[in-house]
Amino acid sequence: MSEIHQGGPPRDGIPAIESPKYLPISGVDYLKENNLVLGMEMNGIARAWPHSDFDLTRNC
Length: 60
What we know:
Elements: E1 37-42, E2 45-50
Antiparallel strand pairs: 1-2
């Protein structure tokens, strides 16, 4: 256990995104056709977020 170290930001160390900016699909040029997204539709408004945004194992 001496080789295991705590890492990452402290509790509440990642600020909330309070005013996200959304792009129309025509303005998104960094995703490929086969990239996974998490999508949601509510009251006729659709949103999608790249799956990679939720990948906790990626290196930041």
